[in-house]
Design goal:
Elements: E1 3-9, H1 13-25, E2 32-39, H2 45-50, E3 55-60, H3 66-75, E4 81-86, E5 89-90, H4 95-104, E6 109-117, E7 123-124, E8 127-128, H5 133-143, H6 146-152, E9 161-162, E10 166-170, H7 171-176, H8 189-199, E11 203-214, H9 218-222, H10 224-242, H11 244-256
Parallel strand pairs: 1-2, 1-4, 2-3, 6-11
Antiparallel strand pairs: 4-10, 5-11, 6-7, 6-10, 8-9
């Protein structure tokens, strides 16, 4: 077994079915397994995935978050390479094989990420530098300018991180950093993961040669407040871990905006 495809799902049956259908319509030529980790869904996601031939389903009784569920999938899989893939993605024919080729051609690299686009082909800024006040402002400025995003995502980059929506990583590297940090329930776990690789002297690469459709925003639209709170908790956790000198300032700013503490956090 060379490649393990890990898909985490939480009440996203329609998206999950679409994602699995894209993999079934044009399966990677790379020998692979598909592991779906269901985070306690109530919409029949697990049963639907189980009906797909060649898919292993791991059911959790609760929603433990994105990082922890991915770690469960990684531990339940056997591939030398691991592809973390969001349930709200559609994978074009040949995309995974090409991404594998690109990572294999770079023995110095631990992680490779593709160009992500929405259903209309508009690019997503799916990579960046480690979080910090200036970097976050820069990322937000770029994200709000489609022409800038389009230009940036048309050339290769060596960023600190790439999006966990579609992230290919060597198992040896993932295990060397202790897998994904489970203090992040949702969001920023991919940033921390990439930064941990860079700290070990391993490269993270973004390639525009591979393109994957990411129908992002569905869960955020369904529960915008919970999504916003999850991001803030992860943002503060990241600053406390990697930018402790700035953590107090971030929390002070969020308190002024009425965004901290959230749900009992201090």
């Amino acid at each position: 077994m060379i490649l393990s495809i890990i898909i985490v799902s939480f009440n996203a049956r329609i998206d999950l079915e679409r994602c699995l259908a894209s993999l079934r319509a044009a399966p990677p030529q790379t020998p692979h397994e598909i592991v779906v980790v269901d985070n306690g869904s109530s919409d029949g996601s697990a049963a639907s995935a189980r009906r797909c031939a060649g898919v292993t389903v791991v059911e959790r009784g609760d929603n433990a978050g994105f990082a922890k569920a991915n770690n469960v999938g990684i531990r339940a899989s056997r591939g030398e390479l691991i592809l973390l893939l969001n349930s709200d993605t559609i994978v074009p024919p040949g995309a995974i094989d090409h991404l594998v080729e690109i990572l294999n051609a770079r023995p110095d690299a631990a992680i490779a990420g593709p160009r992500l686009v929405d259903g209309q082909g508009r690019a997503e800024l799916s990579f960046g530098r480690t979080l910090g006040p200036l970097n976050e402002l820069r990322q937000k400025w770029r994200t709000g300018r489609p022409r800038v995003v389009e230009a940036l995502t048309r050339r290769p980059h060596a960023p600190d991180w790439v999006s966990g929506a579609c992230l290919l990583v060597r198992r040896a590297d993932a295990e060397a950093v202790g897998l994904l940090d489970e203090r992040y329930f949702m969001y920023i776990e991919d940033v921390d993961f990439g930064v941990a690789m860079r700290e070990r002297g391993r490269a993270v690469i973004f390639t525009p040669e591979v393109e994957v459709v990411h129908l992002r925003g569905r869960s955020a639209l369904a529960a915008p407040r919970a999504t916003r709170e999850a991001y803030r908790r992860s943002q503060v956790a990241y600053y406390e871990k990697r930018r402790p000198g700035w953590a107090w300032a971030l929390k002070a700013c969020l308190r002024l905006r009425g965004e901290w503490p959230v749900r009992g956090r201090r």
